[in-house]
Known about the structure:
Layout: E1 10-14, H1 17-36, H2 43-53, E2 58-62, H3 63-78, H4 84-102
Antiparallel strand pairs: 1-2
Helix pairs in contact: 1-2, 1-3, 1-4, 3-4
Pfam family, one: DUF7853
Amino acid sequence: xxxxxxxxxxxxxxxxxxxxxxxxxxxxxxxxxxxxxxxxxxxxxxxxxxxxxxxxxxxxxxxxxxxxxxxxxxxxxxxxxxxxxxxxxxxxxxxxxxxxxxxxxxx
Length: 107
């Protein structure tokens, strides 16, 4: 008898409109960069971009998506050329994702 496949861990993340804008920018850049290199854009970035564009109050991310977005946002806010406004909103996203990733509670 086989066991059921493991459920994918998910996280509910609520982003303000400004936070969504910064995340959208980071994801669009990741997709554009892949296309510029004649590569297939990362699936996680495309799926998250679609999720954010749905303009839901709360986005549901897989653990992998949450980790990838955390990494991309952390890199973006740490860059010297990132506008201060984006740093403020992007840092909030990074903090929220970090809290969710460290929390054992899932969606």
